[in-house]
């Protein structure tokens, strides 16, 4: 019976303290005398315990701030590089030069391992290169990409083997992850990496989409030109 009353009393005290969080401020001697159990099994004073909790929270906040700072710096670098890429594309004087500039920037400035561009029904003179395919929009070999072409959303990660084989040919085994981008009805841009964690489902694709849009805008300047 006494154990029941003691348990009820403890709960009542705890409930009272929750309703009056400043109670111990009126009784500092009581606050100093309280002990709080630690995970290791020993006990510490309430003031020391609160200080330790605050330090843990402070360390966690600092860790999160460092993460945010690192992300902000990386986003700033990507913004500058994307802007430089856009300027380089707009300076190109032909469709062929535009495509060559795009591939070179992706490899040299963005650290891409393999880049592939597929253009549909292209009329302008284009370079003969292993990174470029010219296809009819109705080509049966594009069937595995129909859903992607209809939805126009970027795909990131490791795609089906037939898609890898179509885009990268004999070098497809090198590609452990990739980003596939829609070129607004003009074709597709594939960026391959040997790093399996470079591109993954659910990752942010803002900068990738911006680069693809810049390429489309740059190529549109040469629509209808055959020189």
What does this structure look like?
By secondary structure, the protein is α+β, with helices and mostly antiparallel strands. It folds into two domains: 1-26; 65-220, Beta-Lactamase, CATH 3.30.450. It has seven helices and seven strands, in the order ααββααββαβαββα. The strands form two sheets. The protein has a five-stranded mixed β-sheet, with helices on one face. It has a two-stranded antiparallel ribbon with strand order 1-2. A hairpin with a 4-residue loop joins β6 (177-182) and β7. The longest helix is centred in the N-terminal third of the chain and has 46 residues, at 46-91. The protein is elongated and about 85 Å long. The chain starts with a helix and ends in a 7-residue tail after the last helix.
What labels describe this entry?
7 helices, Beta-Lactamase, 227 residues, alpha+beta, disordered N terminus, two-stranded antiparallel sheet
Q: Topology of this structure?
A:
Blueprint: H1 2-19, H2 28-33, E1 35-37, E2 43-45, H3 46-91, H4 95-108, E3 114-120, E4 132-135, H5 146-151, E5 155-157, H6 161-168, E6 177-182, E7 187-193, H7 206-220
Parallel strand pairs: 3-4
Antiparallel strand pairs: 1-2, 3-7, 5-6, 6-7
Helix pairs in contact: 3-4, 3-7
């Amino acid at each position: 019976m006494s154990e029941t009353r003691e348990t009820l009393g403890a709960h009542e005290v705890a409930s009272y303290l929750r309703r009056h969080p400043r109670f111990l401020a009126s009784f500092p001697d009581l606050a100093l005398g309280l002990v709080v159990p630690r995970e290791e099994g020993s006990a510490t004073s309430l003031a020391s315990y609160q200080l330790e909790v605050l330090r843990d929270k402070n360390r966690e906040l600092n860790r999160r701030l460092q993460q945010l700072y690192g992300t902000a710096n990386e986003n700033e670098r990507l913004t500058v590089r994307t802007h430089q890429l856009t300027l380089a594309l707009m300076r190109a004087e032909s469709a062929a030069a535009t495509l060559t500039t795009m591939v070179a920037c992706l490899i040299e400035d963005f650290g891409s391992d393999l880049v592939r561009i597929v253009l549909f029904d292209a009329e302008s003179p284009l370079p003969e290169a292993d990174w470029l395919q010219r296809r009819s929009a109705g080509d049966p070999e594009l069937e595995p990409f129909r859903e992607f072409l209809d939805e126009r959303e970027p795909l990131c990660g490791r795609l089906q083997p037939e898609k890898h084989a179509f885009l990268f040919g004999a070098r497809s085994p090198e590609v452990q992850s990739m980003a596939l981008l829609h070129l607004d009805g003009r074709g597709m841009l594939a960026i391959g990496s040997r790093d399996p964690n470079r591109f993954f489902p659910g990752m942010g694709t803002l900068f990738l989409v911006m680069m693809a849009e810049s390429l489309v805008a740059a190529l549109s300047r040469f629509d209808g030109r055959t020189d």
